[in-house]
Amino acid sequence: MREEYMIERGGRRFVLYAGLLEEAHARGLRSIETELLQVPGAKNGEVAIARAVVRTEEGKFSGIGDASPGNVSRAIAPHIIRMAETRAKARALRDAINVGVAALEELGDEEVVPEPARETKSVESSRVAGSQAGEGKDEVPKEALPVTRKQLNYLEALIADVVEDGVPKFEDMVGKPISELTRGEASEWIGRLSGRAA
């Protein structure tokens, strides 16, 4: 699995669905079939359950995925059936290509959407703290740092799935080149586009 499709959250490594799909194609993916096993409704707690069957040159692999308002972000809640399908496909693809870490898309509410902006000290209070410690350095909020390569890869995959005319249209929407986004802006757009792609 290419490193650009790996992501770290809370000290654990996860794989992106786009990476699983790319690797499966490279290894002779023949088909992916999905089936909705449970339609979400009031009687079942709005839980959608899907099954995916992946066929490769190595054989047939299946996976089950579920999604409900309790285990997806608010942005994805209107797309519960599609998220259950994505999770099922991710599990089947992981088995098919022998990937032992979970896909980011399989995770629950707090982990599906990119990490929210964390409260950071203001630059002024950081300057004072740094001066007191003899460092003299300003602490720049993490969200203000330039977009990471992993964020760019994930964004580009989402844009290809969701935005008609791809990156140029997206850059028109945000008013600047994708490479000039901050980490915070990239996280926000990943959250928005994930909701549309789910």
Could you walk me through the main structural features you see in this protein, from its secondary elements to its overall organization?
The chain contains seven helices and five strands. With 198 residues, the protein is of the alpha+beta class. The protein has two domains: 113 residues, 2-Layer Sandwich (Double Stranded RNA Binding Domain); 59 residues, no CATH class. Strands 3-4-5 form a three-stranded antiparallel beta sheet.
Task: List low-pLDDT spans.
Answer: 109-137
Tally the beta strands.
5
**Span of the ends, CA to CA:** 23 Å
Widest sheet: strand ordering: 3-4-5
Task: Give the helix/strand class.
Answer: alpha+beta
Instruction: Report strand %.
Output: 15-25%
Count of DSSP H/I helices: 7
- Rounded radius of gyration (Å): 19 Å
Q: What is the ordering of alpha helices and beta strands?
A: EEHEEEHHHHHH
Quick recap:
This protein is an alpha+beta fold and 198 residues long. The protein has helices spanning 17-26, 80-97, 109-112, 123-132, 149-162, 166-174, 183-197, and strands at residues 6-9, 12-15, 31-38, 48-56, 59-67. 40% of the residues lie in helices and 17% in strands.
Describe how the helices and strands are arranged.
Blueprint: E1 6-9, E2 12-15, H1 17-26, E3 31-38, E4 48-56, E5 59-67, H2 80-97, H3 109-112, H4 123-132, H5 149-162, H6 166-174, H7 183-197
Antiparallel strand pairs: 1-2, 3-4, 4-5
Helix pairs in contact: 1-2, 5-7
Characteristics:
single chain, 40% helix, 2 domains, 5 strands, Double Stranded RNA Binding Domain, two-stranded antiparallel sheet, 7 helices, alpha+beta, three-stranded antiparallel sheet
